[in-house]
Write a structure and sequence with these properties.
488 residues, mainly alpha, Rossmann fold, Arc Repressor Mutant, subunit A, 3-stranded antiparallel sheet, two-stranded parallel ribbon, 8% strand, binds glutamic acid
C-alpha cells in the first residue's frame, strides 16, 4: 500500500444542538491524539441535519470550546479543506444524489406510509424480530408506485435490509459485534422533505471524506450494523469502527447535566485549565503506563495505543479534575497565571499594579484549584470585607482578649522600620513571648483583623503585601469592633 492509502483520517462530528459537551471533547481528544501520532488528519464536521434543533450559535460555541482546549483540526467548516463543505446542511445535493443512486440500483425503496400509520406501528409496542416498520411498501408494484407518485403522495426512501443472516463488524476495542438482520429495521435514509437522516449523511460523509477510523461513543454501537448495510448498498468498504466507553456519573449512569456539569463552557468559566481538562479526559478510558495520572498531551501522543484503552465505563469525577487542575496551576509561573487570569477574564482587578497581583498569586497558587476561585480568594486584599466581631475571639479566650491583643500588636508593629514578612513575624513572636500568650491566640485576632477572614493566606506574607498603612487601618477598625465585644 502506498502512503496516501495508509494515511489515518479521523473526524469529530458534533450536532450543534446545545452547549459544547464534554463528551465531544473526549472523543475529539482521542481523535486528535491518534491522528497526530500517525501523522494523519483530524476533520471537524458539523452534523446539522436536524434543522429544528441545530443553531449556528451552538456550532460557534463547539468550535470555540475545542479551540480553547487546543484540539486543532485540519479540515472543518471554518477553515475549509479538500472534502468540503463540512456542514451537512450545505451538502443536501450530495445526499439526494446518493439516495437516487441507491434508488436506481434497487437498494432502497419508496415508502408512502403516512406518519399516522407509522405512529400506530410504533405504538403497538412490538419488540423482537420484525419490530419497527412492517415493510409494507417494500413489495409495492410498479403500478402502485406510479399511481402514488402521480397523486403526489409524499414518500421516504428506506433501505432494503437483508431479511436473514447477520451483519457483523470488528470493533477496534471490543472485537466482533453482530446483529441478526431480522432485527434491523428498513431504515429511512431520505425523509419526505428530501433531507437525509443522520444515518445516510453520516455514512456518505465518512466515505467521501475518506475517514479511515470512526471513533465515537459506545451509544452508537447499535447504529453501526445499519451503517455497514448502507456502506454495502453503495458497494463501499466501511472504515474501522472504534466505540469509546461512555463517560459516566459516579452512580455509573451515562453522564448527565443533572449530576455533573456537561458543558465545556462551564469548565472554562470556572477556570479549569485546558491542559488539565485534556489530561483528565485522557484518563477516561486510558492511562499512561506505571499508573501515572498526570501527563501532557504530548506524552499521550507519544505512548497512545488503542490496545491500552479500557472499555469499562470511566467515571467523570469532578473532585479528581479539581485536584488535577490544582496541580497544573501550581506548575505555572505567577506571570503565566496572571496572563491567564486576564485573558480568561477571571479577574476584575485589572487596574491593580501587576507587582501586587503577582505577589498575591504567589500566595494563592498553592491553594486555589481553579482560576475562577482567584477573585473570591483574593478579594480581601482589595477591599475590607465585613466580618462579625465574634470572629476576633480565639478559642479559649474571653471577649476582652481581642482588644488587648490587637492594641499590643499594633503598638509593636507600628514602629517597625522594615515592613517585611520576616520582621513582622519576629515582632509578633516576641510579643507573644513577652505577654506569655500562645502564638495561635495572638495570631487569630490579628489574622481576622487584617484579612477579615478566619482562614487566609499565610499571615505575615499577606501583611507585607497589604502594607503597613492598610494593616494599621484594619487594626483600628478591628479595635472598634473589639470594643463592642467588651461591652456586651
Ligand atoms: N452527530 C453525531 C453526534 O452528535 C455523530 C455520531 C458519530 O460520530 O457518528 O454524536
Amino acid at each position: 500500500m502506498n502512503n496516501s492509502e495508509n494515511r489515518v483520517r479521523v473526524r469529530i462530528a458534533p450536532s450543534p444542538t446545545g452547549p459544547p459537551h464534554v463528551g465531544t471533547a473526549y472523543i475529539a481528544l482521542f481523535d486528535y491524539v491518534f491522528a497526530t501520532q500517525r501523522g494523519g488528519d483530524f476533520v471537524l464536521r458539523i452534523e446539522d441535519t436536524d434543522r429544528q434543533r441545530s443553531t449556528r450559535e451552538s456550532e460557534e460555541a463547539i468550535l470555540d470550546a475545542l479551540r480553547w482546549l487546543g484540539l486543532r483540526w485540519d479540515e472543518g467548516p471554518d477553515i475549509g479543506g479538500p472534502h468540503g463543505p463540512y456542514r451537512q446542511s450545505e451538502r443536501g445535493d450530495i445526499y439526494r444524489e446518493h439516495a437516487q443512486r441507491l434508488l436506481d440500483s434497487g437498494a432502497v425503496y419508496r415508502c408512502f406510509c403516512s406518519p399516522e400509520r407509522l405512529a400506530e406501528l410504533r405504538g403497538g409496542n412490538r419488540r423482537g424480530p420484525g419490530a419497527g416498520y412492517d415493510r409494507r411498501c417494500r413489495e409495492l408494484s410498479e403500478d402502485q408506485i406510479r399511481r402514488n407518485l402521480d397523486a403526489a403522495m409524499p414518500y421516504t426512501l428506506r433501505l432494503k435490509a437483508p431479511l436473514d443472516g447477520e451483519t457483523a463488524f470488528e470493533d477496534g476495542l471490543r472485537g466482533r459485534i453482530s446483529v441478526r438482520n431480522d432485527q434491523v429495521e428498513d431504515l429511512i435514509l431520505l425523509k419526505s422533505d428530501g433531507l437525509p437522516t443522520y444515518h445516510l449523511a453520516n455514512v456518505v460523509d465518512d466515505h467521501l471524506m475518506e475517514i479511515t477510523h470512526v471513533v465515537r461513543a459506545e451509544e452508537w454501537i447499535s447504529s453501526t450494523p445499519k451503517h455497514i448495510l448502507i456502506y454495502r448498498s453503495f458497494g463501499w468498504t466501511p472504515p474501522e469502527f472504534i466505540h469509546m466507553p461512555l463517560l459516566r456519573n459516579k452512580d455509573k449512569t451515562k453522564i448527565s447535566k443533572r449530576k455533573n456539569p456537561t458543558s465545556l463552557d462551564w469548565y472554562r468559566e470556572q477556570g479549569f485549565l485546558p491542559e488539565a481538562m485534556l489530561n483528565f479526559l485522557g484518563l477516561m478510558g486510558w492511562s499512561l503506563s506505571g499508573e501515572r495520572e498526570k501527563f501532557s498531551l504530548q506524552e499521550m501522543i507519544d505512548s497512545f495505543s488503542w490496545d491500552s484503552v479500557k472499555t469499562t465505563g470511566p467515571v467523570f469525577d469532578l473532585e479528581k479534575l479539581k485536584w488535577l487542575n490544582g496541580e497544573y496551576i501550581r506548575e505555572l509561573s505567577s506571570e503565566q497565571i496572571l496572563q491567564r487570569l486576564i485573558q480568561g477574564h477571571y479577574t476584575t482587578h485589572l487596574n491593580e499594579p501587576a507587582e501586587k497581583l503577582l505577589l498575591i498569586i504567589q500566595l494563592l497558587q498553592q491553594r486555589i484549584k481553579s482560576l475562577g476561585e482567584f477573585d473570591e480568594s483574593a478579594n480581601f486584599f482589595f477591599e475590607r470585607e465585613h466580618y462579625p466581631a465574634e470572629d476576633l475571639i480565639p478559642k479559649k479566650q474571653g471577649p476582652d482578649f481581642p482588644a488587648v491583643a490587637l492594641a499590643a500588636a499594633r503598638d509593636a508593629l507600628e514602629p517597625l522600620s522594615d515592613w517585611s514578612a520576616g520582621a513582622i513575624q519576629q515582632t509578633m513572636e516576641r510579643l507573644a513571648e513577652n505577654r506569655e500568650w500562645k502564638r495561635g491566640a495572638l495570631y487569630m485576632p490579628v489574622r481576622v483583623a487584617v484579612t477579615c477572614r478566619k482562614v487566609s493566606t499565610p499571615l505575615f506574607e499577606t501583611m507585607e503585601i497589604l502594607g503597613r498603612q492598610e494593616c494599621l487601618q484594619r487594626f483600628e477598625e478591628a479595635l472598634h469592633k473589639a470594643a463592642s465585644l467588651e461591652d456586651s
